[in-house]
Amino acid sequence: MKLGYSPTTAAILNLDEAFKLAVELELHFVELAWELSEIVPQLQSEAQVRELSRATGVGTTMHLPFVDLNLASLIPAARMVAVERVQRAIDFAAAVGSSCGVLHTGTNPLYQALTPEYARAVLDKSLSALADSPLPIALENLALERLGLLHGPQALLAVTEQHHLHNCLDFGHAHVEAHRPWHKPGPGEDLIQGYVDTLGSRIIHLHLHNNDGSDDQHLPTTEGTIPYHRYIAYLQRFSGTICLEIGGSAEGVRTSVKHLRALAGDLA
Q1: At what angle do helices 115-129 and 153-162 cross, to 10 degrees?
Q2: What is the residue extent of each domain of the chain?
């Protein structure tokens, strides 16, 4: 397993400390959050990231912008700014050698009968503008709220295939989606496995954490109700990057790394 983690989710904003924890846990990468470079540029410069990665041998992935950003915005000026921010983040990620960029697909806050088809057309326009990305872009499953534009594996697959992109499968998001009132599961359905089966080799990146199905809680993998033992064989076979998005502190990251490695050892 090519394990890494998200320092900002773990409330680690110091880049030196972020890479130090990755070295301690023998992780392959850290997942940078583009917003940090926008809000406090001195905390995450290209030079800092390149030097730390070179010195430690720890690589990077990039979570492309999502705060105050909607690639499916029906407001032209807002959509243009969203695309420009993503393009700047892609350039940064490529400059520091990130292996992929995780991208949210947008929302439809004007949820009326008229607007979903327009929002989808706008999303297509935004993604077309990113077609020449030097960085592999992995569209992430969201569907946490009714306003989410894409619900379910098939909807995400359609956009991914249309734009020749890749996917990031977020286990926690899929688990929450499975408990939302608008989701109508089939008998014995496992939505996480449904995403795995539907998206297949398009999945190049994973986000792992846990929750109780009610909200996106970013708990350690040992907490919540996602049965990680059920997926450990898949995680062992998976050739892409696996990012732990554990909230709150380094201890949750340590616990989750130990948990997943123990499960993998038991399976072996």
Answers
A1: 40
A2: 2-267
- Two structure tokens written together for 200: 């297949």
DSSP 192-214: HHHHHHHHGGGEEEEEE-B--SS
What integer best gives the mean pLDDT of the chain?
A: 94
- Residue with the larger pLDDT of the pair 90 and 113: 90
- C-alpha dihedral (56, 35, 102, 57), degrees to nearest 10: 0
Pairing of strands 101-103, 2-5: unpaired
Class of domain 2-267: alpha beta
Beta strands 59-63 and 101-103 are parallel
Report the pLDDT value the prediction gives residue 113, as an integer from 0 to 100: 61
Whether the pLDDT of residue 114 is over 70: the answer is no
Residue type, 268: A
What pLDDT, on the 0 to 100 scale, is given for residue 112? 62
Average pLDDT over residues 19-43: 97
Tell me whether strands 137-140 and 29-33 are parallel, antiparallel or unpaired: unpaired
| Phi (first) and psi of residue 172, to 5 degrees | -65, -45
pTM above 0.85, yes or no: yes
